[in-house]
Amino acid sequence: MKVDSPYGAEGVSQREHALQCAELAERAGASAALITAALLHDLGHLVHEMGDDPAAEGVDDVHQFLALPFLRPLFDHDVLEPIRLHVDAKRYLCAVQPGYRGMLSFASQRSLNLQGGTMTQAAAAEFIAQPYAADAVRLRQWDDLAKVPGKPTPSLEHYLGRIDLQTRVRRAKAGM
Questions:
Q1: Which residue in 142, 151, 159 sits closest to 36, CA to CA?
Q2: pLDDT computed for residue 8 by the predictor
């Protein structure tokens, strides 16, 4: 799958979705790490060989985990954990925010069912207590809004500096 391939049945490309999500994070004043996570959160859709819309075939592509082995050498937990948790954040929001499930796109509702559905109240309380869960919830909310066909956004190059900053932070912490 390529970066300009369709983002499932959402009417935007993978690139458009990523850029819109990063822009929403940037406009919200998110940290460089969370903006980076917003840009890269669906990279897992690009590294599998299940086609453009596995959910339409009844398959959960577990994309929230697939890109982590590629990203782990480059980024710290403040980038990786919101990516890993963003699917569970959707399940959490369905449990705690009345009407949230109904505002999801058809494609997001379909994938939700494959991803385990709405969390129980106990699971939701356990989820939100985890480190980075609140960031994952913010990311998930931007994810839901980042599906506007033809919406102008900053270019990928605009965000590459943030990605470079995050990789330099990681190297500095590792003493490289």
A1: 159
A2: 59
pLDDT in the model for residue 58 = 61
Q: Three-class SS of residue 22? A: helix
Determine phi and psi for 95, rounding to 5 degrees.
Answer: -80, -35
Distance CA 173, CA 176 (A): 8
Predicted TM-score (pTM) of the model is 0.87
Do 63 and 46 contact (CB within 8 A), yes or no? no
What's the chain's average pLDDT? 86
DSSP result, 58-101: T----HHHHTHHHHTTT--HHHHHHHHHHHHHHHHHHHHSTTHH
